[in-house]
Request: fold
Amino acid sequence: MDWKERVIDEAVEAIFTVDADGTLLSFNHSAEQMFRCFAADAIGQPLERLLPERLRCGHQQLFRRFFDSGVQSMNMSGRAPVTAMRASGEEFLVDISLVRVDLPDGQPGAAAIIRDATERSQAAAAAAEAQRYQSMVLLAGGVAHDFNNILAVILGNTDLALASLDEPAIAGEALEDVRSAALRAAELARQMLVYAGKAESRRELVEIGPIADDTVKLLRGSVGATSLRCSHDTDLPPIEADPTRIRQVVMNLVINASDAIGGEPGIIRVAAYPVHAEEPWWAGAHLAPPEPEGDFVCLEVVDTGGGMEPDVLSRIFEPFFSTKFPGRGLGLATTIGIVRSHGGGIRVTSEPGQGTRFRVYFPAASRA
Ligand SMILES: Nc1ncnc2c1ncn2[C@@H]1O[C@H](COP(=O)(O)OP(=O)(O)OP(=O)(O)O)[C@@H](O)[C@H]1O
Ligand SMILES: [Mg+2]
Reply:
């Protein structure tokens, strides 16, 4: 064993090499421990043996692309860890770096350097949970404030009505105000439930395309000089959803796009199309669906507005986060609640001055 082989064998990281076909050629001691598999059993096997079956095809393509690309090294886990599998079938999360190497016989090969990412992803999940908690605190704070204002209107008008019982016109007006304030309170409560993903909602088979069309027609009058276009595939699969909520999502996204353009000439494009997704595909998404693999219908809203700075983009789904007016900022908080309650996903890309692209994914209903 020369010194390089000794270093590799002693490394804390799992390291293995493969040839251009993805056949395992070496497997260090840490790899044996991580994958619970002896080097002698691993060598000669295809690399995909180390992955759960459902991910093999996607990784094979990625590996091929890496090999064909001329890229010297690549971080395969990007922003999110990748799922790997021990010999026992147990799945776990890893970070993988791939490095191009020359094999001893002069042929091109690759080395993979692998670290267990279980702890890292637990920390990330805890951070996400903390953020969710923080946004609930924000929501509770903001809503309590709004409720207080509404209650002040209700109590004041009730007193006025009681004191004016012999003047029915004044009492009547006061009661009208009580009624509309109570309705506002009810609407606020409903929005909170939607945000928490707990709102009562009915589910039926829904075609997103016509819903997007109808909503866009409704909004056309309110976008000023901006051109608002809607297109969708005619044979989109249906989704299982509450149509009112889907309308609300389209509306929130289009109104935001319109606000971003600000009545200037500009373009808002609404589209719906089918997408087939697998787990690694959701890396970097703002919301990943609980069942990441399968057919989805994507609802996309693209605008040519001012776009967002990264520090704005990172906060847009927080309740009461708004760059417009204080007291607003429930549009996207509600939207993410709706999408979450439908088992969907969200991806947003935006650059200052370059416009914004929102993509919302709903699981396609199986057409059994
Ligand atoms: N298409 C977009 N382009 C640029 N910025 C956007 C876009 N969509 C959302 N934003 C930013 O995200 C923030 C939050 O959006 P959200 O819809 O939650 O609240 P809002 O539009 O400010 O108020 P409302 O409660 O009336 O919807 C906005 O204030 C804006 O800064
Ligand atoms: Mg909004």
Q: What stands out?
A: The mean pLDDT is 87. The two ends are 59 Å apart (CA to CA).
